[in-house]
Task: inverse folding
């Protein structure tokens, strides 16, 4: 069978010593930043982008992927123990997890979170392996018009499901697309918006934007908030194994969470965050006694934690098969691939099968490592929580600044990083979410190329986008999404959901 | 006319101005025709689109009431300016003064950005991080980073 053959190939790659080492490094880093509040996977991956220049593509992507799903494990630890979600996708875990910790059941909550995540991770890996090849085949049938429409759908979907104000989010996409226009036009060779600065005619560095807006931006925002008092339940983490009763209640929640997370992960704008919120709502609705929620219901931990890991995993599907990132982390992964000279898209599976299947297999390996890292070694991570943020900031800044300089061995990228830190701060103050900007920036050049090629082939006929059935369907879906979320009843619900963030 | 949401107003203004600037800038490049779009085609369209979205946001900010006027709020100037200045300063100092001066400068500046600051800790951080960076990046990864001031003649 093909699936088996592919997985064997993948495990062959993932189990080689170098890749195992980078997988472990990614998982450890992911757990670390997951545990540390105020440092998310987007910022971390942005900061690590310069370091992958010296790596091969496969270990580099394996490590970056490990950071993303590793953060889902680590994030739950802080959510449960100190009521501070280490990750935004663990926000709902804190609700019931922290209550369980206060009742002395922190161990049970932590193991249910880790085991649920592991189960979800395994299922997610199989889903990617099973669904990627047919999707890739479908993508090969796409022409330029279809690709353009698909990107429109991807971008719209990303903001419809995952951010606050719709108009602002769409404007941020367009701004990202425009920033992507600062380059040398591929077709005519004209440098655009470069103001005669030679560095700008190669385009703004993706790393400088990501690091400036997400890395530095997050540090500034955290420093501005000041330190808060925390109550840590460290002494009470003794009985790790959940009781029989816990298992009976938790396992259906894990199954539902995994299913829901897997589906939501594939959608544009989906991924870990959306999955965990949706799973919590579902668990609350499904429970016979919903009054227990908010007071330490184990389903409230099991469902969202499984869902966020499943979502983190399956959000690789659109990135790997279509080259279209459904969220900011995947945009960074696409950027990382481009840095390593791999053109993201359906051809990756055939042109780089070791990378493709190796990455998928490494996710399963990484999940296994994470269970070991998180359950027996939980004590070490808890100790880390006592490291003050003021020691962390200089270390992070050092790493970032040297990274920016070594990108091209000149100071230009460092200045760009500083400029984007300032811009990122403005976005933060004006409540404009930067993630859509990054998606637009990544997709901009590809989108322009496909638009111009489609128009060239149709001799300037714009109706090509609606006369070809697949393209029309994709655009229709994008339009439908906008209409649906602007309906008064839904837009009200949507606002309420984002209020909880 | 009264601004009913400060944040939305300034966000809308930003999009409007940036969009128009890009659209105006795009007119410098060949527009082409729909059948063979030139380098100015896509950015011009996008610029107009962004300006339109900005205008809608402005309209919203001036017509719909929001809670308490949605003010931009307190700006934490100190960390913001210190971090940005530290990064930009590092960009200037590294090629001119070398890692052994630029990095301690960065670390000390950053250490003073937060509310709590201790000179002793900042100094320790500076020493540890500079040594670690040299070990990892220069000794380990063999990256070419200037180490000493270029004026002394043996920079790099």
Result:
């Amino acid at each position: 069978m093909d699936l088996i053959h592919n997985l064997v190939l993948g495990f062959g790659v993932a189990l080689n010593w170098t890749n195992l080492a980078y997988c472990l490094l990614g998982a450890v880093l992911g757990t670390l930043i997951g545990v540390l509040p105020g440092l998310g996977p987007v910022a971390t991956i942005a900061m690590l982008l310069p370091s992958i220049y010296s790596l091969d593509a496969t270990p580099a992507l394996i490590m970056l992927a490990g950071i993303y799903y590793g953060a889902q494990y680590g994030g739950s630890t802080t959510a449960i123990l100190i009521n501070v979600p280490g990750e935004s996708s663990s926000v709902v875990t804190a609700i019931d997890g922290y209550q369980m910790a206060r009742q002395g059941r922190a161990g049970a909550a932590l193991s249910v979170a880790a085991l649920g995540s592991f189960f979800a991770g395994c299922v997610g890996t199989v889903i990617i392996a099973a669904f990627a090849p047919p999707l890739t085949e479908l993508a090969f049938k796409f022409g330029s018009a279809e690709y353009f429409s698909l990107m429109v759908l991807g971008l719209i979907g990303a903001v419809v499901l995952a951010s606050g104000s719709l108009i602002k989010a769409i404007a941020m996409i367009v701004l990202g697309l425009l920033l992507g226009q600062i380059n040398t036009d591929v077709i005519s060779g004209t440098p655009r918006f470069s103001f005669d600065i030679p560095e700008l005619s190669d385009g703004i560095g993706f790393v400088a934007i990501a690091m400036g807006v997400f890395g530095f931006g997050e540090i500034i925002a955290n420093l501005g908030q000041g330190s808060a008092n925390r109550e840590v339940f460290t002494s009470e983490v003794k009985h790790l194994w959940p009781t029989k009763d816990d298992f009976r209640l938790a396992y259906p929640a894990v199954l539902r969470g995994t299913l829901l997370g897997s589906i939501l992960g594939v959608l544009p704008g989906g991924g870990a965050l959306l999955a965990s919120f949706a799973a919590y709502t579902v668990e609350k609705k499904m429970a016979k006694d919903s009054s227990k929620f908010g007071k330490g219901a184990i389903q409230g931990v099991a469902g969202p934690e499984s869902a966020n890991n499943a979502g983190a995993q399956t959000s690789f599907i659109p990135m790997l098969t279509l080259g279209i990132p459904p969220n900011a982390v995947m945009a960074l992964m696409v950027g990382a691939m481009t840095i390593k000279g791999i053109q993201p898209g359906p051809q990756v599976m055939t042109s780089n099968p070791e990378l493709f299947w190796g990455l998928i297999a490494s996710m399963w390996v990484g999940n296994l490592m994470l269970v070991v890292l998180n359950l027996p070694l939980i004590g070490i991570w808890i100790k880390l929580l006592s490291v003050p943020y003021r020691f962390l900031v200089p270390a992070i800044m050092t790493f970032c600044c040297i990274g920016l300089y070594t990108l091209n061995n000149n100071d230009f990228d460092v200045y760009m990083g500083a400029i984007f830190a300032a811009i990122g701060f403005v976005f933060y103050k004006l409540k404009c979410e930067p993630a859509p900007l990054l998606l637009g920036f990544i997709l901009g050049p590809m989108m322009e190329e496909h638009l111009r090629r489609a128009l060239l082939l149709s001799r300037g006929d714009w109706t090509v986008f609606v006369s070809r059935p697949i393209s029309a369907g994709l655009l229709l879906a994008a339009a439908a999404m906008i209409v649906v979320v602007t309906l008064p009843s839904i837009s009200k619900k949507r606002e309420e959901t984002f209020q909880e963030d | 006319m009264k601004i009913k949401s400060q944040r939305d107003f300034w966000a809308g203004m930003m999009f409007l101005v940036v969009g128009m600037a890009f659209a105006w800038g795009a007119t410098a490049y060949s527009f082409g025709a729909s059948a063979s779009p030139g380098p100015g085609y896509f950015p011009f369209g996008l610029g107009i689109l962004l300006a339109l979205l900005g205008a809608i946001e402005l309209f919203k900010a001036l017509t719909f009431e929001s809670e308490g006027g949605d003010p931009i709020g307190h700006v934490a100037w100190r960390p913001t300016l210190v971090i940005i200045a530290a990064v930009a300063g590092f960009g200037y100092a590294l090629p001119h003064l070398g890692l052994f001066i630029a990095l301690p400068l960065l670390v000390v500046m950053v250490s003073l950005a937060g509310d709590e600051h201790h000179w002793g800790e900042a100094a320790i951080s500076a020493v540890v991080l500079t040594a670690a960076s040299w070990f990892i990046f220069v000794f380990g990864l063999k990256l070419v980073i200037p180490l000493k001031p270029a004026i002394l003649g043996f920079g790099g």
Summary: Chain A touches chain B through 64 residues (CB under 8 Å).
